[in-house]
TrEMBL record:
Protein name, as recorded: MoaD/ThiS family protein
Organism of origin: Flavisphingopyxis soli
CDD domains xref list: Ubl_MoaD
Positions of transmembrane segments: none
Coiled-coil region(s): none
Length: 81
């Protein structure tokens, strides 16, 4: 699966994207974020409950299934004006 990081997540993770083989236990978008938190120190310091997630270019919720998905984009909440 391709994981893309945007804005402050890109800076914190030190890369804009990566290809990963997810553990079989990671079945939803929320589980992916939790796995990234637990995977390493950068993820632990970076991700919290305010992460916005898109699965295959469609905005998703924590319970959105990753079954068959090829990409996930993670970005912080944004404000406009």
């Amino acid at each position: 699966m391709r994981i893309e990081y945007f804005a402050k997540f890109r800076e914190a993770m030190g890369r804009s994207a990566e290809d990963v083989a997810l553990p079989t236990a990671v079945g939803s978008a929320g589980m992916l974020v939790e796995w990234l938190r637990e995977r390493d120190e950068a993820g632990h310091a970076t991700f919290d409950d305010s992460v916005l997630i898109a699965v295959d270019d469609v905005m998703a919720q924590a319970d959105t299934s990753l079954d068959g998905a090829t990409s996930v984009a993670l970005f912080p909440p944004m404000t406009g004006g």
